[in-house]
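# step 3/5: fold
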Amino acid sequence: MEGGGQGSLSVQAPNNRPGNDFMSTVLQELKIPTIRFLLLWLLFTVATAIIGDMLPEYLSYILLVGSVLSIVGSSLVIMTGYLLSSSHNKAFKLVYYLALCDLMFALMLATDAIMSMAGYSLEWKDNNDGYCYFIALFGQVAAMGSMGYSFFVMLDLLLIVFDPLIYSRSKHKYMPYFHFIVW
């Protein structure tokens, strides 16, 4: 008899790399849409650079449209967090902070685009120290906060995936450290 006798079962050797099936599944699912998204982003970036180089007066309009869309999206995320239950707010607190930083950055971009469209030149902006410092500080704080909260949203998701029981019980202890590191 083949297989070592009657009633024997064929057992495959286990995969020694934990999470290999999960990661390969995720990569297979994300592969095509991610490549399409990256190509679309690259095309949009190149088109914006070409339009901005050829027709610089239209760059302010592109900046204004993008910032308005970002203001609308960030405001909807913040409004959703305000309208939902408190348990939902606690679970997604980092996402709401990220949306708030993105809203601040979009407001800075919209302000700069409106000033450019109103006829204030780069020379005026350079000579007006108050405006220059305000835009620089506002943009720097918003951008750094957005990057910091993006990192901690990613870290939060990784900790939830790899150690859900322990991390979910003590997540509230880590939140002040997240804020301290971001700011």
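# step 4/5: annotate
Residues 8-14 have pLDDT under 50 and may be disordered.
# step 5/5: archive (pending)
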